[in-house]
Amino acid sequence: MTAPAAPPHPGRWAALFVIGLAQLMVVLDATIVNIALPQAQAHLGISDADRQWVVTAYTLAFGGLLLLGGRIADFWGRKRTFVVGALGFAVASALGGLAQNGEMLFAARGLQGIFGALLAPAGLALLTVLFTDATERARAFSVFGAIAGGGSAVGLVLGGVLTEYADWRWCLLVNIPISVVAVVLALPFVPESRATGDTRYDIPGAVAVTVGLVALVYGFTRASEDGWSSRWALVSFGVAVVLLVAFVLIERRSKHPLVPLGLLVDRNRGGAYLFSTLVGAGLLGAFLFLTFYFQVVLGYTPLQAGLASLPVTGGVLIAAGVASQLMPRIGPKPLMVTGGVVAAAGMVLLTRITVESGFVTLLLPAQLVLGLGLGLSFVPLASLALVGVGNQDAGAASAVLNATQQVGASLGTALLNTIATTAAASWIAANPITDPSQMLDAAVHSYVVAFAWAAALLAIGTALILILVRANKQDLPTVPPAHVG
Fold it and tell me: Is 133 helix (H, G, I), strand (E, B) or coil?
């Protein structure tokens, strides 16, 4: 005789509010800091080569430890992990807000990423456990997804307001009250839950992949300062290769791998993960230079820069609604290829910027086109990552997708910053500075080169989808995973 289903938890909707609040904090932390970065760089004396660490320290730690964080939450206790993650995020934010130099800020951002890698998957796992009814779960994940999608827009505006009317430090300090409220409400409203079974963790795999990626990013940084053939750049690249190869070997032999390699060999899922990595690389790296272009070249205030960046989010939201309607009819591949081409075209439009580009005539349409392309791509991407995956591996497949986005963002930001810094130095060498205003010309040249490389990354990702993906609309899972960051 089948046991009756357990009644739904009475505090599940209150728990959704708490988890959504924490998720908003994790999501907006990427864009809110981007808006504050020009002021933070100037105030702390951070070099152009090192400024990317404000972004990459967070995304590397988050992406590199996300899968381990999910497993820790399952077996250590999801509520406990959620609370520790939120408190740790608050402490790390306080350290960042009080930073006295670039190194302290980089370390705080890395610490934020570590605790975010505990907080985000714990919240998602709690939603899965709390909402057992299919209809309610779909509604809860819709709310969670809306927060994830809208959080970036909130971060752009809030970052502008805090930087302009308070101080750039408040873009980090604002996380403290949010974290405190989330913890205080989680204690009475969020129930504890944990998985049963073997609780061993793949610590060697997590260390190898995270340190390997840090070495790779450090190599890019040294290359921008000392040249691609400099000793420290080559040593860093060598260490990265050794550790990343070791990671693959560890995963092949581990009984509890951080990344189940079987998830990667399917051409549809492999295409999805490669596309996710390349889009993350091109997108977040390009946003970094767009922020500097608005504030340093065009002279926008932080708030104006935040508002000026919203067309991308608007395009994503519009196209995502269209893609949701079209995907059951035409499948993922046409949408992703179309979206990738459109997004690359938007990035190409950004290569036309000058020192005096108009917002309405160039920047608005370019960002809108970029957002429309991304929106068409993101919706089918989440489902494509689950094609052919059983229920027991669905969480891992979704987590790998999120990890590839974060890792791609880290590597792309570092690579594009190195390329831009090198391009600026080359422009100055070819055009001796006789007027201070020429420094803006050098900066714009470096941004144009970065946008061109970002467009190339988007184009390569689109080509891989065209070549690798064979899934059609009948192959898609009925409920795509929710993103954790």
Answer: coil
- The verdict on 210 and 237 lying in the same domain is yes
Question: Of the candidates 145, 109, 83, 81, which has an alpha carbon nearest to the alpha carbon of residue 378?
Answer: 145
DSSP reduced 3-state for 472: coil
Lowest-confidence range among 160-169, 236-245, 317-326? 317-326
Residue 267 has a pLDDT of: 87
Higher pLDDT, 52 or 345: 345
Q: What is the pLDDT of residue 447?
A: 96
Pair (282, 364) in one structural domain: yes
- Residue 440 pLDDT level (bands cut at 50, 70, 90): very high
Q: Is 2 among the domain residues?
A: no
Give the CATH number for residue 371: 1.20.1250.20
Give the dihedral sign, CA 128/130/132/137.
negative
Range of the domain at 68: 10-199
In a domain, 3, yes or no: no
Element at 248 (helix H, strand E): helix 231-253
Burial class (CB in 10 A: 0-12, 13-18, 19+), 307: middle
Judge if 417 and 441 occupy the same domain: yes
Apex CA 174: angle with CA 169 and CA 177, to 5°?
A: 140
pLDDT of 135 reads: 76
How far is residue 285's CA from residue 56's CA, in Å, rounded to a whole number? Answer: 10
Per-position DSSP letters for 442-457, written without gaps between them? HHHHHHHHHHHHHHHH
CB-side exposure of 173: number of CA atoms within 13 Å?
10
- 82 touches 190 (CB < 8 A): yes
CA–CA gap between residue 414 and residue 437 (Å, rounded):
27
149 with 218, same domain: the answer is no
Higher pLDDT, 147 or 235: 235
The DSSP annotation for 190-219 comes to: SPP----S-----HHHHHHHHHHHHHHHHH
Give the Cα separation of 149 and 13 in Å (integer): 20
Average confidence score pLDDT of the chain: 86
Do 391 and 437 have their domain in common? yes
- Does residue 3 surpass a pLDDT of 70? no
Helix (H, G, I), strand (E, B), or coil: what is residue 131?
coil
Q: Tell the residue number behind the tokens 């070819």, with chain if given.
A: 430
Q: How many domains does the chain have?
A: 3
Is there a single domain that holds both residue 75 and residue 95? yes
Residue 474 DSSP code: G
Rounded distance between C-alpha atoms, residue 384 and residue 53, angstroms: 31
pLDDT tier, 411 (very low <50, low <70, confident <90, very high otherwise): confident
pLDDT in tens, 165-213: 999 999 999 999 999 999 999 998 888 887 766 667 788 888 898 888 8
Give alpha helix (H) positions in 354-484: 364-384, 391-430, 438-468
